[in-house]
Amino acid sequence: MNLESFQLADHNQRLLDAHRRKLAYWTDAVADAERIIQKLIDFQIAIPSWALGTGGTRFGRFGGGGEPRTLDEKMADVGLLHALNRASGAISLHIPWDIPQDADATRQTAAHYGLRFDAVNSNTFQDQPDQALSYKFGSLQHVDPAVRRQAIEHNIEVIRHGVALGSKALTVWLSDGSCFPGQLNFRKAFSRTLESLQDIYAALPSDWKLFVEYKAFEPNFYSMTVGDWGSSFLYASKLGPQAYTLVDLGHHLPNANIEQIVATLLMEEKLGGFHFNDSKYGDDDLTAGSIKPYQLFLIFNELVDGMDARGMNHATDLGWMIDASHNVKDPLEDLLQSVEAIQIAYAQALLVDRTALEEAREANDVVRAQEILQDAFRTDVRPIVAEARLRAGGALQPLTLYRSLDTRTQLIRERGLKTVATGL
Amino acid sequence: MNLESFQLADHNQRLLDAHRRKLAYWTDAVADAERIIQKLIDFQIAIPSWALGTGGTRFGRFGGGGEPRTLDEKMADVGLLHALNRASGAISLHIPWDIPQDADATRQTAAHYGLRFDAVNSNTFQDQPDQALSYKFGSLQHVDPAVRRQAIEHNIEVIRHGVALGSKALTVWLSDGSCFPGQLNFRKAFSRTLESLQDIYAALPSDWKLFVEYKAFEPNFYSMTVGDWGSSFLYASKLGPQAYTLVDLGHHLPNANIEQIVATLLMEEKLGGFHFNDSKYGDDDLTAGSIKPYQLFLIFNELVDGMDARGMNHATDLGWMIDASHNVKDPLEDLLQSVEAIQIAYAQALLVDRTALEEAREANDVVRAQEILQDAFRTDVRPIVAEARLRAGGALQPLTLYRSLDTRTQLIRERGLKTVATGL
Amino acid sequence: MNLESFQLADHNQRLLDAHRRKLAYWTDAVADAERIIQKLIDFQIAIPSWALGTGGTRFGRFGGGGEPRTLDEKMADVGLLHALNRASGAISLHIPWDIPQDADATRQTAAHYGLRFDAVNSNTFQDQPDQALSYKFGSLQHVDPAVRRQAIEHNIEVIRHGVALGSKALTVWLSDGSCFPGQLNFRKAFSRTLESLQDIYAALPSDWKLFVEYKAFEPNFYSMTVGDWGSSFLYASKLGPQAYTLVDLGHHLPNANIEQIVATLLMEEKLGGFHFNDSKYGDDDLTAGSIKPYQLFLIFNELVDGMDARGMNHATDLGWMIDASHNVKDPLEDLLQSVEAIQIAYAQALLVDRTALEEAREANDVVRAQEILQDAFRTDVRPIVAEARLRAGGALQPLTLYRSLDTRTQLIRERGLKTVATGL
Amino acid sequence: MNLESFQLADHNQRLLDAHRRKLAYWTDAVADAERIIQKLIDFQIAIPSWALGTGGTRFGRFGGGGEPRTLDEKMADVGLLHALNRASGAISLHIPWDIPQDADATRQTAAHYGLRFDAVNSNTFQDQPDQALSYKFGSLQHVDPAVRRQAIEHNIEVIRHGVALGSKALTVWLSDGSCFPGQLNFRKAFSRTLESLQDIYAALPSDWKLFVEYKAFEPNFYSMTVGDWGSSFLYASKLGPQAYTLVDLGHHLPNANIEQIVATLLMEEKLGGFHFNDSKYGDDDLTAGSIKPYQLFLIFNELVDGMDARGMNHATDLGWMIDASHNVKDPLEDLLQSVEAIQIAYAQALLVDRTALEEAREANDVVRAQEILQDAFRTDVRPIVAEARLRAGGALQPLTLYRSLDTRTQLIRERGLKTVATGL
């Protein structure tokens, strides 16, 4: 379904007065509101194609209905999100779930929705029906060179699809690892994975990036061959300047200080991209900002600081993507919540008085440093985020509008109740 | 496939001399070897019907072939395990995956294999195709009384199946909980769950037990309505004397001291049963003893001590069951490994010099207390476990025999390569 | 040092216009601002006497100077905090660190500062110079009845001191436990601890409460005899109606859902009190709200909901106390930050639209339930907290005023640089 | 006190027959027992000078009596340990706790006991009484270059002391980090630390190594500037070929796979040394092998495999040291237990059939790979460890002999009951 412009206009009109009142109060209080608004307008978060359907756990899956059945329907869903919030202007495809039949047509459809193609993602953590060799014991790490070759070829094919669509990055997430002590020769697993990655890297167009994602555990439960930022950094360093580490918020051991990792990788010029979600226990893939919003803010605080220190462009120099699962929510509502939470954290981070913060730090004034951060975090930046949406042509309250249009009901009517999006 | 008695005899004959040498050394050193051997012979660990097929994670499943397609084939598999190790003389069914079409015939088949029916397990964590109402938002905790009623009725039906087969316990594991802050009124969720359990409890035959299993997280990732031993204990206490807590080793927060929980529950007469597996990160469901064998020993140390303190019969007064998943192993081999690891831990616990241990404790002699436990743990009890198997009519080395018979190949020939056991 | 009323008046006068502007915006938007302001005025958080000095770790301690050397100086410090924020109107003493020489004089001094005496705390986790028997191997759990007797007598003496000062509760935090597997007979440790607590309970005045605090680990690193809420609940239930569980935010295993524990204990009428702090790894004792402010809000959300459900008085029916350590901050500044963070979380929890929340829950509208909570959390409630302070006679910005008065410099001048507060 | 040779001889004589019986059984079963015995004889574990006294926690310290008061007494204690087990032939000093007054005399004393000086350790995590500037806010990371300079000079002084004694390595463990979000500019903290380390590295003799130890948390509770192996690896790589990572078993986040880290660092030629201890929750500093003996074995399995792959000498090419704290045990007994647990794990790792293991791995035979490791781990190697001790001139059962000599009583008589070893 499409969002009609009159629907958007009506919605915004109804809320405009209240919005302006709140905004006025806000812009009174904050000096550089305009700068922040512009940065928010520029900041786009890619939606992964697999996040448009109901997720599941190993214990079951409870579908929600109206899920997209094709790549076109997935683009339509992201297009709808983007029309609502003007901050979801990119889609990240997953091969083989989203192989475009006609790349040109797909590009045109995307352009129609104002979407570009973000990083493409390979899949060597599942066996496909027509696949010659199994990934049961790994892919790029596999003891059998034929399996490694198959996985390498798959990645190269993913790059080809990405090139056809205008993507500029390949994300390699490997489930490779082991479930039991003894199963793996860690050294050989590392070397084989590195060699496989080198073959993939060699096939990378010169204006592409390779993102090496790491994960502490799951689906392997004893070791992961790219298990932490240190390992990913090692691979990326050995691969070359086009290789980077990708950080997924849910892929760490309990209590990890992710913001410090982010700062270190930025400093070393090896941070490539980000997968947003939230979690309490493991890779829970919950809505961004739903569990630890302060951590999300602290991460953005490091991102802003570290990118500014290198003169990087916030909007374009890192890959921003949501990677979540929606087991009990309407996926589109969940994504609207995630994007808003990310925007709020970003706006708060932009609000931090960095000069004062550095002064406090240089004076070892811990109390003041905390006050400066919390002052930004405690500020209600929702009016300014709404203003950015409004100026960009989106809705003041995307979720409210989405619901008032009864979107899900329409999607179910169009697509059926028992649809399952390709993917997990 | 069946284990022929000559195969067993040949196997044992070939290994007998070496075994006797090791055993002699052992029985020389240990005073009460006979007592331990007898206890090992008596100790049976139930095999859950769902552990006979390859497991999976939310990311994929890599089947192994030859998996049982029917309840009869599942019983045949457990029968084979039991013929090999004489320690798997019970099967635990899961409804609706294992609904017996003819209870009498099923009982006869089980008897043929020397198996009894352990606790039956209900399932309200998945929707079945023909199910009227969904468990997406919980079952016994559900806001809608009709869903609760459906879940209650299902549990009562499970009891009926269990009665027909001679089971004496119902295990209720609930995935009920919430994924996001705000989703649940904890108080109401507790009360509704309690009321639902009371209805189930009321349907319990007088010689049955109700096991209330707890789990810290997954598949709900913010809260679990029966989330820790304290909660399970509360439910079990309010339900009555037939209700008990069931401990699954993988269902705890990081670093939990499970052996202390076991001791406390035994002391309070509320420990009902055990699910064995091992894990490093969460509910990883790995082979028992494969990650933390010392923890397994320490748990058995408390079990032996606590049961003896109450005059309980090790073999019959608690429910012992494996609950694991086999993603990269032949399920039957995995189960043979698990059972052996459990027997080793049990034998080591029986070996502990309890008089000396209590003396050391009363003297605050921490060094000596540790020495006493580690002396038992460092002892190689495999000869005595093998002897118990031998006397009970099993194989000296079950795994070796299983492999030498090329069992899996035969099962694949009989059942096919692409079979999927009912279940997860 | 004292806060002069003109200093307070000057401070408030200078900030008043800006404050009124913010508040007006706020009270425009929120219907029941007055109700919340009144509740904030009533809500007092006790300051523990040991939080007034610089803390330390086992690796070292870096004193900050001007620390209180006597009980009178401690009361002066709390008095100053209370003069600044009008929310710290209680002090929690620790025996033997704070034995009053003249209870009447001490009460008068406290009254002068507007302070009452909150729960008194016993100490059996350290040996005192003149102590007959050592607590090296525990106190209330000790194998030697003479040690247990000594610890019981100490607790009874603490009650006597509390009675003399007008306290109404005893907090028993036990470091009892074990460092090594084998060291402790868990069952006996539990029974001995229970018997000891029963003796203490018997000495409790009829209008007193006994708080049984639990802690997952540290200073014992294998087991803690009161290690989780389940254990504490067991003790409190067996003791009787005057015994309650006390929750310290830092005393849990990683990832524990503390808000659910709070809800459960309130439901069972066994929640007695609260120790506020924050932490990332263990019992880090950081400033409240400095690491996980959303968790603090979620806890208050359950507190408000659970107390309202029982008709409890927020201000008086639970014990509220800060329990933190200030290794790198001025302790008084840290406490001002903690109190403000607690007030903010409380105000946000009061802001939650409970009717709408229950509706969303009963409709399984997870998205909306989250929106309702986050709407409250994202609201900038600082103006209303400041207004409550102002009306109660405190400072609009306590920390700003504290700093502008150069308080620490004055305290160092008065008390010296190398002072060490009695305590840790 | 000294161990008289007749005492040793008597002890061994009494146990010899039983030992020979066990050993014979063992050497019958194991082909290359001689090779393992020789490796055990060569393998020496350094004792840190601070491990000879009772440790403590931030909550208290319960001294045990007879603790060494001087460097000479510390060497005497290690000498006694070494005389008992012939595996503790090195001591690791901590400056400023152990500044030798006369290096030559100290070397002679050490030689008398058969001890060499292992890595020297600097201390910038505490302030010393005579110190000009405070480390409250860090040392090598400090914002003030004068503090950094002081810390650098201290490290260089430690090297000088080490040179005088014949040490060949400096271990730098930094408590530097932050307790609160905002406190630290992570980037600057890293750069300053790196620059400081470069100055220290420049002062390193050409045959020395610099060990960069990492730790996840404590005593800083928000960030540690050398917080994980990835960070340490970065520092060591930037410093140069003499810089290495040092792994302390207790310095990781929950559930970390330490053996994989070890394998990776060995592969990258950046593993320098090891601190042995055990833990359940954090840096609990418990006796090696007392909590997770299987993990200790798995680590040694990687050490043996990785060192062999590089042709390294097990005994000399890595630094082996115990780093534990003895809160409830006699420190010398604890150290005897730790050394034995380490030897057992090492012997078991030497027992692993590496050819078969690699075959199983290359065949993806997970079950067999686990069997091979567990076969080694389940083997009772104590007779062979005792034999190695015997041949090296030590006691068959060091702890038994230590106790039978009533050593602690004698030490208390010599040194007094209330002594406190310099250090923590």
TrEMBL record, chains A, B, C, D:
InterPro entries: L-rhamnose_isomerase, Xyl_isomerase-like_sf. This is Sugar isomerase. Keywords: Isomerase, Manganese, Metal-binding. It comes from Spirosoma sordidisoli. One of its GO terms (molecular function) is isomerase activity.
